Amino acid sequence: NISLRALKEEVRNANAPQFLPFMASEIEKGGIRESTRENRYTTYYLLKEYCEELTIGELTPYFVSKFESWMCTKGYHTNTIAKHLTHLRIYVNAAILRGLMSEEDNPFHKRRISHRPFAHTHLTPFELEKLERLAVLPKQQHLRHILDAFLFCCYTGLRYSDFVRLTTANIQRGATHTWINTESQKTGASISLPIDLLFEGKALALLNRYSDNMDAFFH
Question: pTM for the complete prediction?
Answer without folding.
Answer: 0.63
